[in-house]
Design brief:
The protein is an alpha+beta fold and 641 residues long. The protein is built from 22 helices and 22 strands. α1 packs across α2, α17 packs parallel to α22 and α20 runs antiparallel to α22.
């Protein structure tokens, strides 16, 4: 430059220690194509300004292309770009230029706006450095432009989104938080602090420990588990209901939600954002509903959307025979798997808002038992339109169904009993008539043919006739027992009845050397049909005599006690006894005998006696041991004086 000291226009030659750097600078001086490549590839515009003649300024072609102009038409004058730069930004450019001129350490670095040829704004980052002579006087200035329009537009869009989100958050009254999982850095908004009764300034400085400090200790473990599930990708968002300690010393409930928004290179969570929503009143309402469900006399259970138990009534545990009552938080599919699996599709429909019910359904339980249920599924809502879970109402109608079945069976039994009675009357009457005719004809035959009485075939006919008559007589007696149930029962003195029967069999008792002991106390009355009671006593006493042992002094002892509104009559002997392991199931069967060597034993007595006992509303139990004796216990209704 004429009249001035030479100026080193390359400001980068100060550091020559690195040979590659030195070589690159040498190439730049030797080969201009390298310089052209750098300015084209690394920048959106390069400029060089003569400060001694400030009107002269060289702008490379890319600068003008970025702004939509033809470089060949644009003069290398500073006025060319000053006419299209934002006037406010131009003031800032000159202010920074002045400071940089006075102090080289002050950077000439700013973002300015240019008006594109088409009218829109182009954002440019403008940087420069003054080149000074040996005396430090500014002579030239080298600068670079970088187009950051896309970045500024993205920032503007982001700013608008943030403003929109802030308006939304203010409308929802949510507390917000941002948490750096790795460093613990945490940022809360003012509403987050208000929820627990503080201003945000009172909580500063805030970290993740701020949240921990005000959280209920019992909820921290649950929160951490849910966070780890979210970090592992098991849940799309972190969501936890937790208690926070308010400034007034009480706890408030918050719904804490969040999600990871950035991850590091190793795939670990970095930044997480979320919200706090106060739900104290909602929890109080829920607790009131839970207590109502627990105390209601009906079988009711409340579930969340994952079918985990929220509440269950005492009746619910009874209906489903659930022993472990600690079910809150447990999955329904774990507590009652057989029912939950069967109703799985119904639960899904209900969680979608549908009310489903069934008036009666047969359920086979895990232990094989059958249970009849009437049930209804109703959704409950956490918000106005959001299903929070479902409520199940259940009634056990098993007993009712069994009563209906019993009524139906009883009706069938009554009809069958009527037909059997009619059949029994017809059979007993007609058979008795035919048997009598056969016996009469056989007798007439013997009268006309007396020599045939000793005929072997004729004797067989006679024996068959007698057996038939006896069998019909037994059948007729059974029919009479079962058709006389409708007769009125009367009060009978048990001791007197035993005494009368004892007197009637005294002769055979003496003959068989069997002692009869009546130990029944006076004044014990039973409800019975007198003829039946006499027959019952006679049968048991004569059987005891018939099956007495010849090897010892034999006896029959009758005693009675009052028990639970009944009279228990015991008839004990020390006779031959019965092998109950072998014969118990057929003891009271018709024509069943257990001592084949005893003459005239037809096996009809116990059958008839059992029918008579049952006809007066009683029952029989038996204890016996072979060659030791037998005790029959007859339970009859007690008739009060």
């Amino acid at each position: 430059m004429k009249g001035k000291k030479n100026v080193d226009v390359n400001p980068f030659l100060g550091d020559t220690e690195n040979y590659l750097k030195k070589e690159l600078y040498g190439l730049l001086q030797q080969d201009s194509s390298i310089f052209e490549f750098l300015q084209e590839a690394a920048m959106d515009g390069l400029w060089f300004w003569d400060l001694d003649e400030p009107e002269n300024e060289w702008m490379n072609a890319k600068f003008w292309i970025t702004l939509g102009y033809d470089p060949d038409e644009m003069p290398h004058k500073s006025s060319a770009w000053q006419d299209i730069i934002n006037k406010e930004d131009l003031k800032r450019v000159y202010a920074n230029f002045s400071k940089h001129s006075q102090d080289p350490s002050y950077p000439f670095d700013q973002i300015v706006r240019y008006r594109h040829k088409l009218g829109h704004t182009v954002w440019v980052k403008c940087r420069g450095i003054i080149l000074r002579d040996d005396d430090g006087v500014p002579r030239k200035m080298l600068g670079a432009h970088t187009d950051i329009t896309k970045i500024k537009k993205a920032e503007e869009d982001l700013r608008k989104q943030i403003n929109d989100f802030e308006h939304i958050i203010e409308g929802t009254h949510l507390g917000t938080w941002r948490w750096n999982v790795q460093t613990g850095e945490t940022v809360f908004n003012e509403r987050w602090a208000e929820i627990i009764g503080y201003s945000l300034s009172e909580l500063q400085p805030t970290t993740i420990n701020t949240w921990v400090e005000y959280s209920h200790p019992d909820d921290l473990e649950k929160s951490n588990e849910l966070l780890q599930e979210h970090f592992a990708g098991k849940t799309p968002i972190y969501e936890c209901e937790a208690r926070m300690k308010h400034k007034n010393g009480e706890y408030v409930w918050v719904l804490d939600k969040g999600s990871v928004v950035s991850w590091d290179d190793q795939g670990n969570p970095e930044w997480m954002i979320g919200s706090h929503q106060e739900i104290t009143q909602k929890k109080k309402d829920f607790e009131r509903n839970r207590l109502f469900i627990e105390q209601t006399p009906s079988a009711i259970a409340m579930f969340d959307t994952k079918m985990n138990y929220l509440a269950a009534s005492k009746k619910w545990f009874e209906v489903y025979s659930i022993e472990d009552r600690n079910v809150i938080g447990k999955p329904h599919f774990e507590v009652l798997p057989e029912i939950a699996e069967k109703w799985k599709s119904n639960y899904q429909k209900c969680l979608e808002g549908e009310v489903i019910k069934n008036d009666e359904e047969c359920i086979e339980r895990k232990d094989g038992t059958v249970q009849w249920l009437s049930w209804e599924l109703c959704p409950w809502y956490s918000d106005q339109n959001k299903v929070g879970g479902l409520v199940c109402y259940t009634s056990d109608i098993t007993k009712l169904k069994r009563k209906e079945e019993l009524k139906s069976l009883l009706k069938i039994a009554e009809d069958q009993n009527k037909r059997l009675k009619n059949f029994a009357h017809i059979v007993s009457h007609n058979l008795k008539s035919h048997s009598g005719n056969f016996e009469m004809l056989l007798d007439l035959f013997f009268q006309e043919n007396p020599d045939m009485r000793n005929n072997e075939i004729a004797q067989l006919f006679n024996t068959a006739s007698q057996n038939l008559s006896e069998t019909i007589s037994h059948l007729n007696e059974v029919v009479l027992i079962n058709t006389s149930i409708d007769k009125s029962l009367v009060s009978v003195d048990l001791k007197k009845s035993i005494d009368e029967v004892t007197r009637s069999v005294q002769a055979i008792a003496i003959e068989s050397d069997v002692k009869i002991n009546n130990e029944v106390e006076e004044g014990i009355n039973v409800s019975a049909i007198p003829a039946y009671l006499d027959s019952i006593l006679l049968n048991f006493i004569t059987n005891a005599i018939k099956y007495s042992s010849k090897e010892r002094d034999s006896y029959v002892t009758l005693s009675a006690i009052k028990k639970y509104g009944e009279i228990e009559l015991s008839i004990e002997d020390n006779g031959l006894g019965i092998d109950l392991e072998k014969h118990r199931s057929k003891l009271f069967g018709m024509y069943k005998t257990f001592h084949p060597n005893i003459e005239k034993s037809r096996g009809i007595g116990l059958f008839i006696t059992k029918n008579q006992v049952e006809a007066i509303g009683g029952r029989i139990e038996v204890e016996s041991k072979v060659n030791s004796g037998t005790t029959f216990k007859i339970f009859m209704k007690h008739e009060k004086d």
